[in-house]
Each structure stands twice: as structure tokens, then as C-alpha cells.
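Next up, sample data.

:::
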Amino acid sequence: MDQIEPIARMISALSHLPGIGQKSAQRLAYHIASMPLEEVRDLATNLWQGRKAVRYCSVCGNYSVEDECQICRTSMRHNGQICVVRDPRDVMAMERMHDYQGLYHVLHGTLSPMDGIGPGDIHIQELMDRLQAGDTQEVILATSPDIEGEATANYLARIIKPLGIRVTRIAHGLPVGLDLEYADEVTLSRAMSGRREM
């Protein structure tokens, strides 16, 4: 039997979310259809208001509700270290371990020539501008240990080293192909403490 049109629309919209396949979208749509209207309205309102309030930090590119994120505004975090990550989820993953006390730079992607993503498509120039303008002593490359993450780390190491800044890579206590957001705090902590010079 075909889905009724409103549920089919909900399934279609939910299936566009990352990690939500057709079956998960169907399960969510049917759950939403059974919820009280007030709860559905609150869910939709919170999603809309949350998205409307979120912007990118003008310094590091992390999510923020102000011009600068809380991390960039905290003067104690300005210790000469910048940890480079793929996206804001990775910042949250790194923050969960409570070991790292420096700043971040969010690339919003990784290099992937096969997909047509080159250096001009992610926030590499913004990183280089920060490094040339600031007093950074170390850049920690914390991109995921997959092909794109490794290619991005190697490219960044090549262009940062001539600036005289120490470039390190987090250790690979992380399984190959694992996104940082799914790593536990202990694994991340070991990977950070075992970082190496590039």
C-alpha cells in the first residue's frame, strides 16, 4: 500500500538527513505522525529557531551564536596552539576529552580531488591568514584518518612548515575510516598525546 501523501512528504524530508535511510525516515515519520500536535510544533520550532540562531565563528569557523565562539573568546585558550579539524562536530569530539586547551580551526571539509574539492573549496586560506597574523607555535592536524583526511593533513603540513610553525598530526589510536565525532574520550586523548611532527 502506498504511503498517504503527508507521511510520504515527511519520509522524503527526513531521508535527506545524513545517516537516515528510507527505513529510518519511515520509522521517524510514523512516530511524528503519532505525536501530539503541540510536541510536533515544539520540535519544528526548536529546529527552526536553533538553525536561525547558529552562525559560524568569524575566527575559527566553529558554530556560534555570537560573532566569535566561546572558545575563541576565552583568553586562556590562546596558548599558541591551533587544532585543525574537518567540521564543528569534531570540535565537540575534541572538547569531550578535556585535555586540549588551545584554539581550533574548522576547515568545513577535506580535500577530495575525486569529488572536485580542492584547497579553494575549504577554509585553508582562512587558516593561513590566521597563522601569518598571529603568534601560533604549533598546528595540530586532527583530520580523520581516512584518505581525504590524510591528503588534507599532508597538504596542510607542506604549506605550513615554511612559516616556521611546528606541525603535528594526532596519533592514529583512531581506527582508519572512523570519524572523530564517534571516537570515545580515551581514544581521542591517547591520539592527541601521541601526536607526531609532520
